[in-house]
Amino acid sequence: MLRNRFMPIATTMPRRPGAADAFIDARLAAGVVGFPLADLVKETGLSPTAAKSQLLRLGKWVVKVTRKHQFYLIVSPDHQTVGAPPANWWLNDYFKWLGHPCYLALQSAAETYGSAPQALQVTQVMTDTSRREIVLGRLCVRFFLKTAIQQTPTQQLTNAYAPLQVSTPAATVIDLVRYASRIGGMERAAETIIPLLPLIKVPELRRALDAENEPALGQRLGYILETAGHEKLALSVEDWLPAHPLWTPLVPAQVDRENMPIVPRWHLIKNAKLLI
User: pTM value?
Assistant: First the structure.
């Protein structure tokens, strides 16, 4: 018998009001605060439209990371005033879903090792593609591009709520030199570097320098190490550099070597002062 075309067609999956609530409760019980829409659809049987509708009804308890991506964060009562859970709690899950590497970097990485000369208002993350910063309420995540990110030495963030890679102290100081212009200048970078130096061993520094393979970064870092009185680390950088590196300005810029002081040891043009 043919189906009457005016008869309603039975759905294979019944509507389940509250399915999103139950899904979120289960995620929180497992310590997970971020999830893609696809997981909610798969585990509840809701259609994408129904899943979005249920999430929308939850209001401030769930937020999308970005308009473009169907990845959501669960905002518990403890984080309502901020507008999102801490970035360290969900960044690994988010980037795993995106299919891109990332690690906690720069001043955010330095802060995990105890170096925080100034209060940091953003979470700084390194990844392999250009991305706009994420702003959710008072939470801000800023991204920095490094195409050779896989070569950077990293380690698991200790005592963390969720897994997350962080640059090693040695890799962190090199990143701070490289991205100094984007984090407040070379002097600000040096202020953050100095408290990290007692944590760095020579082999680790050599490994991080090899990963970057940019003499100009070594020349700038070597000068900072010498100025800060860490001669053992400075010697290891000097030994790593080529015999005759190109003359390099302390702060990347077009400079006139003839009219500026130089540091022969590092083949460095001092186009800025470091008060360290």
Answer: 0.90
